[in-house]
Model the fold of this input.
Amino acid sequence: MLSGAGAPGEGPQVIRFLKSRGIKRLDTLLITTWKDQQLGGALEVLKGFGARQFFHNAVFTAGPRANAVYAYAQQQEKQGKMVMGSPGPGQSITIFFSPPCRLNAIAPTGPMISRFANDPDCSLMVEFSYDKLSVLNLGQTTRKHQEAMWKTSRDRPDGQVLVIGHAGSADALLPSLLKPLKTRVAVIPVARRAGKAPSAITLSMLRKAKVKVYRTDLQGNVTVTTDGRSVDVKTAR
Done:
């Protein structure tokens, strides 16, 4: 499964990476937001690899790239080559068993879809659970989305590993979210060429909660592996 397909111009890089891992076809392509930074290489990946399933955020924001990807996926579905859909809150997709590995859609909830219609930052919030471990990807959500999720969702992820969007900006993480979560490790993807850095407010918040932070702008690729109970993190730098 591939979550996101890179920013504009990064399609070839994503394809090279997939090939380096021996991947010839995707089971699932997951698009958490219709913003260009997730869709940059989506069309190239779908045409070059194909995907058995294409899951996307129900909050659609139109644009040339989003429209093209959606139209191509629809065409593939009509030809019976792909299943296309938007996972609803609480929907769990089992990837394999013994122990179970699942993808759980946490948000947007029904009330959020109505409230944040056409809001590109109201992205899918997804939990990947494996045995006793939970990885919570906040996508491109901001504090208002996370607050709405906690109020309207019936799911309560543990989030021992937390992936924070918006390069860790001051609005990227709701402070009260760290209290119910069991976060031990946080990963903040930061594009080096964007010239951005995580906010001191966000970093301070995580430090006070005794969360170990990994940043891709400083440490390169961050690889998190687990046996379902413990977590091992390796960085490129």
Residues 87-237 form one domain.
